[in-house]
Design a protein that fits this description.
The chain is α/β, with parallel strands linked by helices. It has 16 helices and 27 strands. Helices cover about 25% and strands about 25% of the residues. Helix 6 crosses helix 9 and helix 9 runs parallel beside helix 11.
């Protein structure tokens, strides 16, 4: 179009004869070149104007670069760093060789391989240096995924609070990222959703002429295989934001990981050996052979109250013999058990480690082992024969040189009449055998006792008042029973004596040692009758009541009768557990108390009930720590000594604050809030 307009304008000349034309033609011939050049420049300018208009209609923003060269626009760069523990991978890089840092000699590449997180930091550094050398006003925001997850978990929705660098102008020296460059991959497992949500809020609320969002990650399958949650966060970005993905991963190498380390469920007392189980998983694509598992025990005596900040570990380190694992299949896992013996009470630590590989952070795992002296368990038998209480006490305290760790305290039935929570508090477990009725006060105290971690075992005999049990132990406020008691059901004799009266039910540690023998283990156990449980009794008493059903705990049938009715059940209430045997031990309904399988069952039951009151043996890095203290041990000042690979450790003084109760019935709670960054080199 501009070309046609130009040509048409050149044709608009009217011929006019004039004597002076000779002089004009002579002048034209003299200035012909200049006239043609001027016409050409006019044509090109018209074409340029049309081209610019067309480009602007097509969304061209190249003019911003010209304005940026003279400092006319502001560009906001937001970098989200994935610092989950998988970013500590030191696998081989894309070129087939291990990546090395800039200050590392190539001969040391095998020992100082660059991690995926280090590659993300190098990318951040290159970006910052390039922006510092370019024209225009550039602002930088850097946010780590672990920090964003902790800020979000704390209830904050501010992107500025989660950012390590928040909307800072990049200067020529680019020193604003020095703090971020000193961080390492965190040991926690987190996703990018909290970081993307906060980064989206920050990008949309910060005014800028141009906006860029960079995501540096290893794009692992767990997060990006089904990225609907991530896509939902990215959809909240405004249309003018440019997203750039930075892949920091390398070709994955072989990796072994200790996925679990925990002491077996048992009575944890000093002087009694404890079996510890480690689970090792092979995340590689080849079989791992001859893998050494190194274990050690860090002993902390009960009289050691204050840690030594000058040492990395204040306890006494005892190295255990190394165990050799023959092979671990690709993608599979195995469990390796070992035994530890600690004669002194206290909370000790157990650590297991594998040789370093591509991801060293998952090669070491630790757990604690709280050991106490022998403690009491309460045994109350309500029958006249006292047979069941005798059998339970004999199993838990066999005498001679055998130490179980439990000291049975046998009390009469009248002990329950005035029982309170303080009455049950000194006992690690409570065994109620053939009790006809349980009072309201005792039931309320037992409920609170179990919620706080205590263990309760109920043996419901023939003299039990089912209506009273249901009204007091299984109502809207309590779930001490696995269900409402129905009538006692007899068990018909087996037509062929090949089937035992007791059968294994749901998988449970209570009968785990007997499963190897199969049903033959209960060949000599006879069951004549036992209580049955009503079905659908956990909803509501009134079928016409349209209120919400009562939430009941999940019940496991540990042992069932031959006809399928439950015989032994187990369910949890709060931190504690309740084991219910729907038969008494006075010999009228079953002879199980005299069978050897009853000894195994009682030892496993006591281990389960005992461990419920014990503190947690392991905790994730980003989980909260709750410690209940008696009033005489409480102080308003707390000293926290953070973990560090190398001493010294700098103690942190913290003050507690009072949280007012929501109602007059609740007790006031003193809370100490502490935030520690997952990276030991970067604490807040």
């Amino acid at each position: 179009m501009p070309l046609l307009v130009h040509l048409i304008n050149m044709l608009r000349h009217r011929r006019q004869r004039w004597a002076a034309m000779d002089f004009l033609l002579a002048s034209y011939r003299k200035q012909k070149k200049w006239i043609r050049l001027r016409q050409l420049l006019l044509l090109l300018s018209r074409l340029a104007v049309a081209a610019v208009l067309i480009a602007l209609l097509c969304g061209w923003t190249g003019g911003g670069q010209i304005l940026g060269s003279i400092g006319g626009i502001t560009t906001h760069h937001v970098v989200v760093l994935d610092d989950s523990y998988s970013m500590g991978d030191k696998s081989i890089g894309p070129n087939g060789r291990r990546s090395v840092t800039a200050d590392t000699d190539s001969s040391d590449s095998g020992r100082n391989a660059m991690t995926a997180y280090a590659r993300s930091l190098q990318t951040l550094q290159d970006l910052t240096r390039r922006l510092a050398a370019s024209d225009g006003n550039h602002q930088l925001t850097v946010m780590r995924a672990s920090r964003a997850a902790m800020v979000t978990r704390g209830g904050s929705e501010s992107g500025d609070a989660a950012a390590d660098v928040a909307s800072q102008t990049i200067m020529a020296d680019a020193r604003l990222i020095n703090r971020v460059m000193a961080t390492t991959a965190s040991p926690i497992r987190t996703d990018l959703v909290p970081a993307l949500d906060l980064a989206t809020e920050l990008v949309n609320s910060t005014p800028a002429d141009a906006k860029f969002l960079y995501i540096a990650s290893d794009f692992r399958e767990r997060d990006w295989g089904n990225p609907e949650r991530l896509a939902e966060s990215l959809r909240k970005l405004s249309a003018d934001v440019t997203i750039r993905m930075i892949d920091c991963a390398a070709q994955p190498a072989d990796n072994l990981a200790i996925t679990d380390l925990s002491p077996s469920q048992d009575v944890w007392v000093a002087g009694v050996p404890v079996v510890v189980t480690a689970t090792i998983r092979n995340y590689g694509k080849t079989v791992a052979r001859d893998v050494p598992l190194t274990t050690r025990v860090i002993r902390y005596s009960a009289d050691r109250q204050n840690p030594d900040p000058t040492l990395a570990l204040s306890g006494e380190i005892e190295t255990q013999p190394t165990q050799m694992i023959e092979s671990i299949p690709a993608g599979g896992e195995i469990t390796q058990s070992f035994q530890v013996f600690i004669p002194a009470e206290g909370t000790h630590a157990i650590e297991a480690s594998l040789p370093d590989d591509a991801l060293p952070v998952d090669n070491v795992r630790a757990c604690t082992l709280p050991l106490s002296n022998a403690e009491k368990v309460l045994v109350i038998d309500g029958s006249t024969s006292d047979r069941g209480g005798y059998h339970i006490a004999s199993v838990l305290n066999p005498g001679s040189q055998v130490q179980i760790g439990a000291i049975p305290d046998r009390q009469p039935l009248s002990f329950l009449r005035s029982a309170t929570l303080d009455t049950f508090a000194p006992y690690r477990a409570v065994y109620l055998v053939d009790i006809p009725e349980i009072g309201e006060n005792a039931a309320a105290a037992l409920t609170e006792y179990v919620k706080r971690g205590g263990g309760l075992a109920l043996f419901i005999g023939a003299d039990a008042n089912a209506a009273s049990y249901n009204q007091i132990l299984y109502n809207a406020e309590r779930s001490l029973l696995p269900g409402a008691l129905a009538q006692a059901e007899p068990l018909e004799l087996s037509p062929n004596n090949n089937t035992a009266d007791l059968q294994f039910g749901d998988s449970s540690s209570l009968v785990a040692p007997l499963t190897a023998a199969g049903e033959a283990a209960f060949a000599l156990v006879n069951v004549a009758r036992s209580w049955n449980l009503e079905k659908d009794a956990a909803n509501t008493d009134d079928p016409d009541d349209d209120t919400a059903p009562i939430e009941r705990p999940r019940v496991r049938n540990v042992l069932s009768r031959r006809d399928g009715l439950p015989f032994v059940t187990k369910h949890d209430i709060g931190r504690g557990s309740v084991v219910t045997v729907l038969s008494g031990l006075d010999g009228r309904w079953t002879n199980w108390s005299g069978d050897p399988t009853f000894v195994v069952f009682m030892l496993q039951t006591n281990a389960l009930l005992w461990s419920g009151a014990a503190p947690d043996t392991q905790r994730f890095v980003d989980s909260s720590l709750i410690k209940r203290l008696p009033v005489e041990q409480y102080t308003a000042q707390v000293t926290y000594v953070p973990a560090n690979d190398e001493p010294p450790r700098i103690p942190i003084e913290i003050a507690t604050s009072l949280v007012e109760p929501e109602s007059a019935a609740d007790e006031p709670v003193y809370v100490c809030l502490l935030y520690t960054s997952p990276s030991p080199r970067d604490r807040g």
